[in-house]
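Researcher: Sit down with what I've pasted below and flag anything odd:
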Amino acid sequence: MPSRPTVRPGGRSARIQQSVHAAVRDLVAESGRDALTVPLIAARAGVTPSTVYRRWGDLQGLLSDVAVERLRPEAPPEDLGGLAEDLAVWAERFLEEMGSAPGRTYVRDALLGDPEGGNPVLCSSYAAEQVETVLARAADRGEDAPGVETVLDRVVAPLMYRILFRPGGLDAGYARGLVADLLTARTPDR
């Protein structure tokens, strides 16, 4: 299976990617995921099926690529003036987006369609960048902030585990509780 570029391609390649991604999103909205086929997507995108196979390898590889793009945050985390609230609100929104039915589907697609692991690493970097922004703001305000890896281990990892394997009972209170536990029972940062 060809490996996906780690940066957005330009020119014709970017137009093909954009067209194929749009075709996937439109077809899912119209007919559902189960109706997707590479020839159907290619026809909608105005490319040949061989273009899709050459670029993404198979349908799951394409769905993984679309998922990674959909999981990319659209904006930096909100700045509410303090670490506890900034991180709690970010964790709530992360849970809300990733825990939704489409979010869980995108996460699974990102994991399943990339056997070499590049897409999950990219998705993880999105969360790490968002957390890093929150922590840098806190440090600029003079607040004592944990390290990025500590937040990933103590907040993001439990959220993702629950989202993927035990989704029942997840709510904003759970996300806020993870943040509160992290900030009150600090352990050495990594």
